[in-house]
Amino acid sequence: MSAPDRSHPRFRLENELAHPVRFSIVAALAAVESLVFGELRDELQVSDSVLSKQITELENAGFVKVSKGFVGKRPRTTLSLTKEGVSRWRAHLETLQAIAGTP
């Protein structure tokens, strides 16, 4: 049996974005400069623990930048895509369009 042909576009998809919550996080962050953790959690309708775990995965993969600070005495976590994350997100979308046969 021969080695699989790696020319199909699916081989260019980002494995980190195969999880629907991670895909949704990156999609939401791609549309804005940054989002506060709680706003993203509410938008995606997930728990704090689910969002936190998936953000950690994306941060380790180089997609997301996490900034922690305070507003008054309250902690605030702000999320944004890295430059690499933006580039990889765009390439992922282009690959999905290639698979679907859309321009």
From TrEMBL:
Annotated coiled-coil segments of the chain: none
Domain Winged helix DNA-binding per the UniProt entry, residue ranges: 21-99
Official protein name in the record: ArsR family transcriptional regulator
UniProt lineage: Bacteria, Bacillati, Actinomycetota, Actinomycetes, Micrococcales
